[in-house]
Amino acid sequence: MAVSAMTDFPEPPADGSFAARLAAARRANAPESGAAGARAGAMGTALRLSADLVSAVVAGGGLGWGLDWLFGTSPWLLLVFFFLGIAAGILNVIRTANAMNAAQKSDMMAPDGTEQASMVEDSQGNGLEH
Asked: Range of 72's domain?
């Protein structure tokens, strides 16, 4: 497939059929694989987990500060809700990480319910590489 000099888009297939154009578009827009894709996925996961933690702490602190201002109990409700926010943030991170691990394990399972082999079987069939 040739790439036009004017743009970074691939040229459409010569036959012009919809199926051929659709297949070419899917190949061009396929998700990254390899190290770059794994690094981007890890960065997304880290950003999501840190955002879960920080948002819970900020929400707890903000709620505590607002209630302290409303009731005049400064700084007690701020401290209580700040630490409740920390606890809620940690629980959210744990739940999210467990859900991601479960999804990853289900992706690694073969359609028949058995785990896929992580090593390529050699000609002897013992699962060891030479």
From this structure: 45-108
Residue 3 lies in a domain: no
The structural domain count of the chain equals 1
Checking 24-27 for CB contacts under 8 A at 24+ apart, the result is: 27/1
Task: Report yes or no on 89 lying in a domain.
Answer: yes
Distance between CA atoms of 109 and 115, rounded to whole angstroms? 5
Alpha-carbon gap, residue 37 to 46, rounded angstroms: 14
pTM value surpassing 0.85: no
What per-residue confidence (pLDDT) applies to 26? 84
Half-sphere exposure of 5 (CA within 13 A, CB side): 0
In a domain, residue 104? The reply is: yes
**Nearest C-alpha neighbor of 94 from the set 55, 53, 59, 51:** 53
